[in-house]
Design a protein that fits this description.
Elements lengths: L11 H12 L26 E5 L7 E5 L1 H7 L17 H13 L3 E10 L4 E12 L6 E11 L11 E12 L16
Antiparallel strand pairs: 1-2, 1-5, 3-4, 3-6, 4-5
Amino acid sequence: MAGIALPDIVTDRCRSLLGHWFSLPRPPHSLIPLKSALDPLAIPKLLPRVLLHDLRQPGRAILRLVGTGLVEQYGFDPTGHDYERYVEPERWPSALAELVKVAGHPCGMRVLTEHVHSDGRVHENEAVGLPLEADDGSGRFLLFVDEIVKAPVGIDPRRRPVRHLVVKQRDYLDIGGGAPSAGATAAVR
């Protein structure tokens, strides 16, 4: 990570993901590690908060891995589903465009979000996402760690589900090839 400017990462898990991702081996002439380089046994403390998006199919972001901590927070297990099912319809095109931008540029992303529950209470999360290349070259995945920064005491998402999510801040992380501008677009190869 030497020489690469990163925003102030708030949570330990998000910092740990960055450190681990930068330590992964890469194929020659590539900024991105292969998906097979990721060994879940090497990151046991991150696994409860891990989310893996599969972007190999145009227009889709299939959730291939959702950690148990996230499943508990959501109140259900979205593994195997398209992320589109869990994003407000008016927000989906921009949400997908951001995932594709990060995978296609390539770069990393850090997002601070506010989750508004059905009872009006709010909790804040920090998420960091980084690309992985499919071993067969068929496209990219994004590996995220999503950690609660602040939450009211007693929130039970199964009884008070998140009604909507607000992106408070988005930063692109330069992983060695620069970072896109806020309005830039990219395609996943």
